[in-house]
Amino acid sequence: MSVRYQITRHERIGGSQGTTVTYRADIEDSAYSGSAEGKIATGIFFEWVYDQLDERDPFANPVQKSSFSINLRIESDTDLILLNDILDADEDRFKIHFYIDGVHKWSGKVLTDLIEYPEGPFPFTAKITAKDLSNL
Q1: Which pLDDT score is estimated for 136?
Q2: Residue 93: what are its φ and ψ, rounded to 5°?
Q3: Is the dihedral of CA 82, 113, 31, 22 positive or negative?
Q4: Phi and psi for 77 in degrees, rounded to 5?
Q5: Is 90 helix (H, G, I), strand (E, B) or coil?
Q6: Among 113, 104, 103, residue whose Cα is nearest residue 134
Q7: How far is residue 5 from each of residues 47, 78, 99, measured CA to CA in Å?
Q8: What is the pLDDT along the chain (136 residues), one digit of tens a residue?
Q9: Which among 14, 42, 7, 9 has a CA at the least distance from the CA of 28?
Q10: How far apart are CA 11 and CA 80, in angstroms?
Q11: I need a labelling partner for 6 at 20 to 30 A (CA). Which of 15, 34, 45, 86 fits?
Q12: How far apart are CA 92 and CA 114, in angstroms?
């Protein structure tokens, strides 16, 4: 397992006297052997969506599928290489791992057909989506 990109965002919850929460998303590349490229996110960099259980009948559909999307700011050819590698890769090559204050919260495989980004000059934002249990 080699983390290729590590995106971090620090957010203060509860005003100036509140506590700081650290969100981190790692993009793992099973074919990568270098050190992780660090990115600091300044806006909302992720979206986490999951199925809700029916409160009246929680066992009717007990498996909760979910997806996790990263909004990654692409600023250079180096960043663009990551997108091209994801698009050309097998679906088992890239994974996203999500952490809150260092505690692992979610993992899933990046789905190459769900990559979204505009054609045009730098900088731009690319949306990279991963899913768990996507075949269910």
Answers
A1: 47
A2: -75, -40
A3: positive
A4: -60, -35
A5: coil
A6: 113
A7: 17, 11, 14
A8: 599 999 999 988 888 888 999 999 999 999 999 999 998 776 788 999 887 767 777 666 666 788 999 999 899 998 999 999 999 999 899 999 999 999 999 999 999 999 999 988 999 989 999 998 755 4
A9: 7
A10: 27
A11: 15
A12: 14
CB 106 within 8 A of CB 132: yes
The one-letter amino acid code at 63 reads V
- Token pair, residue 75, equals 């600023």
Q: What size, in residues, is the chain?
A: 136
Predicted local distance difference test score (pLDDT) of residue 58? 67
Query: 86 φ, ψ to 5°?
Result: -65, -45
Residue with tokens 């992780």: 36
| pLDDT score at 77 | 92
